[in-house]
TrEMBL record:
Name of the protein: Glutamate receptor
Organism: Haplochromis burtoni (Burton's mouthbrooder)
Marked site: Crucial to convey clamshell closure to channel opening: I647
InterPro entries: ANF_lig-bd_rcpt (IPR001828), Glu/Gly-bd (IPR019594), Iono_Glu_rcpt_met (IPR001508), Ionotropic_Glu_rcpt (IPR015683), Iontro_rcpt_C (IPR001320), Peripla_BP_I (IPR028082)
Disulfide bridges in this chain: C69-C323
Classification via PANTHER family: IONOTROPIC GLUTAMATE RECEPTOR
GO biological process, one term: cell surface receptor signaling pathway
Gene Ontology molecular function, alphabetical: transmitter-gated monoatomic ion channel activity
Record-marked site positions (Interaction with the cone snail toxin Con-ikot-ikot): R466, R674
Stretches that traverse the bilayer: 534-556, 618-640
Domain called Ionotropic glutamate receptor C-terminal: residue spans: 407-767
Role of this protein: Receptor for glutamate that functions as a ligand-gated ion channel in the central nervous system and plays an important role in excitatory synaptic transmission. L-glutamate acts as an excitatory neurotransmitter at many synapses in the central nervous system.
Signal sequence interval, chain numbering: 1-21
Residues engaged in binding L-glutamate: P491, T493, R498, S668, T669, E719
Source lineage: Eukaryota, Metazoa, Chordata, Craniata, Vertebrata
């Protein structure tokens, strides 16, 4: 029994009208489906239903009916099936092809192409070998990683290795077919990243590619500079938004053309189906394997139409083609059916369908897609004759020429003085409701370029930052990345991280990060305010100088004989025995003399000795300088009101704990501190990210309001232009302190690769 078979479908093709000679009234077709092919099973039954109800067919020789039963594989052959449709994997492929080859029963499959030449196998899925090699040549990849699934065969691997030898490529090939733990993909990706590998060719089925891409996002390897080529025909069936949002380039292939009338007609009916009868229809995107399944019905029906027209005898006789017969006998008419299947040429959902002599698809076209902000976009196509044809340049030209014929969506943010509501905005509509610097800038750009535009305020009120977990962008950057806006005209800071996913113009304004605090209260004069003109250290030096000079003057006067003398009155009283001459410069008189000189006042005594007068003169000169400086500073202090600021720089913030500080959430200022390698800023970031309650403000007004209500216990870090603007606006209770922490600029932004960039930015902003 085939280990992955969930159902064997027995199809009865009944002839309508009289049976032709040699053509049976009933034809049995077997069907094999895996557990994971639920939608394909629905598509198969729906395709049969479409065939039965199609009234436009002029020649309708038979009707298709079916019933279900779960059976072992040999059951099909014992029931005398004429052909088998189904899926295989690497484990079941050899068994199926051996049975079909031995019994001459054709097997029609949408599974991966078989490398070797096998009879009685009709392969609905085209080979990607040529398309992959052409795309590698187009992008000039010479060094890349090739991740492949061994279940899909080695055809592309062999072709790549042959090209690598011929072209001197450096290819690192890794098999991921046996990996069960998804984190193993991450280990491989991170290992390749350490080797500076930025280019990956992933050759797997859709489910495995989605698992790999999830680990790409988790490991952060989806930023600008990474390029992923997905060697699978279901580009639109993959989850690519999160990978693309990081800035990575994603290229892949698509076999279903959404513009095809056949596809559109099928989808209109497909979306009206009841999911209870047709699981995974309607609300589930159509898989490319389901489209191949639909086309397989067309091929089978067309082949049997041909056989009936040619009156080929395909009736079964005896035990021919029964594997349970002993011995097993090949069915001779099976060759006629195989030949008819290979001769089919019909237009289906996957384009032109025809086969070569080995049952492989030939003369087919594969579309090449890239992920863009607006979603998957066709950039070219590949076929066997023209190889890869790049058509993106023509699309860009067409977009540029159509700019004047459509209204451009300009995303911006409500932030004074850049964008504000007018006082009477409720009475206005459209762009007339707004005013501000960026409103005027957008108007001037539109006037110079000659376009129509409408202003759109970003819904979440954020500038734009990437979520570290989901890797998705919010704010205005997210509006551009995900195609909801064409251009951003706002105080949007140009940063390296943002430039990975969007394009910027040259800066229209230069600025830097600054510190906003609540304006300190005016200081009231105290009892010792007279000391303020000079620093306390200077006052201490003056006191020590005063004491030192007094002591020196005392000692000099003590040892100098000229300071010992009698008054004239004392000499006249007793000339014969005069008293001992006194010394006027005792310790207290010395202190008094120095104090009088310092206060610019006179004194009853003065030194008589030369040494004493030198000491006194030096002291007088010193006091002259000090008093003059004090008087000048005192005048300034009396005429200018002083406000004492507790913070003067970022270093002051970092070394204290009383004043909390934070930034705007989801902005460039927060990103600056998060990525900074400067010790002071690293310390500040460590505090901010762990502070409770959170110090990050949702909007600038929220941050300013917190500064005003904090009574000086909160500092807000924001762009200098906004800081200076708010400082000059009533109630004028905030102030900017210190210099700017960095230097940057505001720029006008567009999505990556947008045709608007050269037209709007380079021309409009520079004018």
């Amino acid at each position: 029994m085939w280990h992955r078979t969930i159902a064997a479908v027995l199809f009865l093709l009944n002839s309508l009208g009289h049976s032709l000679a040699g053509f049976p009234n009933q034809i049995n077709i077997g069907g094999l489906f895996m557990r994971s092919t639920v939608q394909e099973h629905s598509a198969f039954r729906f395709a049969v239903q479409l065939y039965n109800t199609n009234q436009n067919v002029t020649e309708k020789p038979f009707h298709l009916n079916y019933n279900f039963c779960t059976v072992p594989l040999p059951f099909f052959f014992s029931r005398g099936v004429y052909a088998i449709f189904g899926f295989y994997d690497r484990k079941s492929m050899n068994t199926l092809t051996s049975f079909c080859g031995a019994l001459h029963t054709s097997f029609i499959t949408p599974s991966f192409p078989i490398d070797t030449d096998v009879q009685f196998v009709i392969q609905m899925r085209p080979s990607l070998r040529g398309a992959v090699l052409s795309l590698l040549d187009h992008y000039k990849w010479e060094k890349f990683v090739y991740l492949y699934d061994t279940d899909r065969g080695f055809a592309i691997l062999q072709a790549i290795m042959e090209s690598a030898v011929a072209n001197n490529w450096q290819v690192t090939a890794r098999s991921v077919g046996n990996i069960v733990d998804p984190t193993e993909y991450r280990r491989i990706i991170e290992e390749m990243d350490r080797r500076q590998e930025k280019r990956f060719l992933i050759d797997c089925e859709v489910d495995r590619i989605n698992l790999i891409l999830e680990q790409v996002v988790t490991s952060g390897k989806n930023s600008r500079g990474y390029h992923y080529i997905l060697a699978n025909l279901g580009f639109s069936n993959m989850s690519l938004d999160r990978v693309f949002s990081g800035g990575a380039n994603i290229t892949g292939f698509q076999i279903i053309s959404p513009d095809s009338p056949i596809v559109q007609q099928f989808l209109q009916r497909w979306e009206r189906l009841d999911e209870r009868e047709f699981p995974e229809a309607k609300n589930t995107p159509l898989k490319y394997t389901s489209a191949l399944t639909h086309d397989a019905i067309l091929v089978i029906a067309e082949a049997f139409r041909y056989l009936r027209r040619q009156r080929v005898d395909v009736s079964r006789r005896g035990s021919a083609g029964d594997c349970l017969a002993n011995p097993a006998v090949p069915w001779s008419q099976g060759i006629d059916i195989e030949r008819a299947l290979k001769m089919v040429q019909v237009q289906g959902m996957t384009g032109n369908i025809q086969f070569d002599t080995f049952g492989r698809r030939s003369n087919y076209t594969i579309d090449v897609y890239e992920m863009k902000p607006s979603g998957p976009r066709k950039i070219g196509y590949w076929n066997e004759y023209e190889k890869f044809v790049y058509i993106m340049d023509q699309q860009v030209t067409n977009e540029s020429s159509s700019v004047e014929n459509r209204t451009i969506v300009v995303t911006t943010i409500m932030e004074a003085p850049y964008v504000m509501y007018k006082k009477n905005y409720m009475q206005m509509e459209g762009n007339d409701r707004y005013e501000g610097y960026c409103v005027d800038l957008a108007s001037e750009i539109a006037k110079h370029v000659g376009i129509k535009y409408k202003l759109s305020i970003v819904p979440d009120g954020k500038y734009g930052a990437r979520d570290p977990e989901t890797k998705t962008w919010n704010g205005m950057v997210g509006e551009l990345v995900y195609g909801r806006a064409d251009i951003a005209v706002a105080p949007l800071t140009i940063t390296l991280v943002r430039e990975e996913v969007i394009d910027f113009s040259k800066p229209f304004m230069s600025l830097g990060i600054s510190i906003m605090i609540k304006k300190p209260q005016k200081s009231k004069p105290g009892v010792f305010s007279f000391l303020d003109p000079l620093a306390y250290e200077i006052w201490m030096c003056i006191v020590f100088a005063y004491i030192g000079v007094s002591v020196v003057l005392f000692l000099v006067s003590r040892f100098s004989p000229y300071e010992w003398h009698l008054d004239e009155n004392d000499e006249a009283k007793d000339p014969q025995s005069p008293p001992d001459p006194p010394n006027d410069f005792g310790i207290f008189n010395s202190l008094w003399f120095s104090l009088g000189a310092f206060m610019q006042q006179g004194c009853d005594i003065s030194p008589r000795s030369l040494s004493g007068r030198i000491v006194g003169g030096v002291w007088w000169f010193f006091t002259l300088i000090i008093i003059s400086s004090y008087t000048a500073n005192l005048a300034a202090f009396l005429t200018v009101e002083r406000m004492v600021s507790p913070i003067e720089s970022a270093e002051d913030l970092a070394k204290q704990t009383e004043i909390a500080y934070g930034t705007l959430d989801s902005g460039s200022t927060k990103e600056f501190f998060r990525r900074s390698k400067i010790a002071v800023y690293e310390k500040m970031w460590s505090y901010m990210k762990s502070a409770e309650p959170s110090v990050f403000a949702k909007t600038t007004p929220d941050g300013v309001s917190r500064v005003r209500k904090s009574k000086g216990k909160f500092a807000f870090l924001l762009e200098s232009t906004m800081n200076e603007y708010i400082e000059q606006r009533k109630p004028c209770d905030t102030m900017k302190v210190g210099g700017n922490l960095d230097s940057k600029g505001y720029g006008v932004a567009t999505p990556k690769g947008s045709a608007l960039r050269p037209l709007l930015l380079s021309l409009g902003v520079l004018k």
